[in-house]
Amino acid sequence: MNKYLSEKWLQLKKEPKSELTFSEKLEFGLEVLIYAGTISFIFLIIYFLYQLFLVFWIDTMNISIKSVLYDYPVLYTIYNHSNQILILIYLFVLIIVIFWIVRKNRTTRRLASIRKYISRMAQGDYQLRIPDQEMGDYQNLSQDVNTLMDSINQAFLQRNESEKSKDELINNISHDIRTPLTSIMGYLNLIQDKKDLTDEQLKEYIDLVYAKCQNLKGLLDDLFVYTSSQDSTARMDFQFIPLNFFLEQIQADFDYQAQKLGIDLQIDVNPSDLEVLIDPEKIVRVLNNLITNAFKYGKGARYIRIQAKKISNQEYESLVKRESLHALDKGQPSFWLEMEVANDGQLLDEKELEKIFERSYRSDKSRNSKEPGSGLGLAIVRNIIRLHKGDVHAFVHDKELVFRILIPQYRSRSSIENKLTE
């Protein structure tokens, strides 16, 4: 409680004071006196001219004003109370002018207060906010300034998070690169120092060095793809692709490795003639990462199933509601592409299903595996799908680990490109 009160007191001390200083009060008082004196002087001149007019009328015309106005009751009454009426007019004008001065002064003080707040913000006090309830007509202006500062604060937080993320990425990748690089240098030193190596031993060492270089190249490739896929302005080459043929090509690329591991790689597209608007090169990378991930960590898997289908906007909304997914606000696409990559191998715990998409995260089971990896594969998958304005998530269903991809589909390349700029 004491800490909270101390923080509030420090915050109040830091806020610019809105009370009038002595010089400002003196300036305000002089302004009121000058305006009041000017009005009084003008009133005295008007009163003097009025009295002069009455004297001139009586002396020159030799007529009594009362006798002339006697037949006009209203004018007669005004004439009898002319002095009082002039005084009331004087007081009314004086009050109006003083009210205008006070209002103008209050407006000036509010603008000066806003300027002081903005000045403090410009000096780096980004947590400071203008108390808009006290700003009267300038409440909207104060709220706009506060909103702007919130946006600036958010931008700074994102920048700091980005810098922190980059530092962590560099540290992690440096560690991952150092391991194979150390092995490569060790084997090369061994080859250089030992002159009596047989051809068989030399070939073995060179093969090991080559394998380590391949691992190193994979790490660097992952790093490049991850950093480029993080950029929301990354260039996207959208094309209309016949999905069934596209997946058959990917199936053919992995067929040998799948047979070697005893895994049946299955594809299913509904409808079979489905055409989708995607960046094929990037989606190839997504599927490569998911299939490779299943090969590495889906221990005991008998099959990997890639299933794709066309779903309507209504079916998408039902899916979001049924499975409590985060709804994507993409206007009204023509339809949605739902693609699942599933395997019946080793499953993940529920708590790990969201974390696996984080950069450099490796589950307990994969961390204990001897398979090399950068930990960027699934982070790259998520980044690329988000570049398509879609989403990806993982879940366990019917003893399968399933990665579900949802991508909105539009009628033309220009439609999706417009969405990318929003």
What does the model show?
This protein is α+β, with helices and mostly antiparallel strands and 422 residues long. Helix content is 63%, strand content 12%. It has 13 helices and seven strands. It has helices at 2-14, 22-61, 65-69, 73-80, 82-122, 139-193, 199-230, 243-261, 280-297, 313-323, 364-367, 377-387, 413-420, and strands at residues 239-242, 264-270, 275-278, 303-311, 335-343, 391-397, 400-409. It has a five-stranded mixed sheet. Strand 6 and strand 7 form a beta hairpin. It is elongated. Mean pLDDT is 78; it is low at 1-5 and 7-14.
Salient structural properties:
single chain; 422 residues; alpha+beta; two-stranded antiparallel ribbon; 12% strand
H and E order:
HHHHHHHEHEEHEHEHHEEH
Percentage of residues in strands: 5-15%
| Cα gyration radius (Å) | 41 Å
Return the average pLDDT rounded to an integer. 78
- What's the tally of helices? 13
The largest sheet has its strands arranged as: 2-4-5-7-6
- DSSP strand count: 7
Shape by Cα distribution: elongated
Low-confidence regions: 1-5, 7-14
- Structural class call reads alpha+beta
First-residue to last-residue Cα separation: 45 Å
Helix content: 55-70%
Largest sheet: 5 strands, mixed
Q: Helices, strands, pairings?
A:
Blueprint: H1 2-14, H2 22-61, H3 65-69, H4 73-80, H5 82-122, H6 139-193, H7 199-230, E1 239-242, H8 243-261, E2 264-270, E3 275-278, H9 280-297, E4 303-311, H10 313-323, E5 335-343, H11 364-367, H12 377-387, E6 391-397, E7 400-409, H13 413-420
Parallel strand pairs: 2-4
Antiparallel strand pairs: 1-3, 4-5, 5-7, 6-7
Helix pairs in contact: 2-5, 6-7, 7-12, 8-9, 9-12
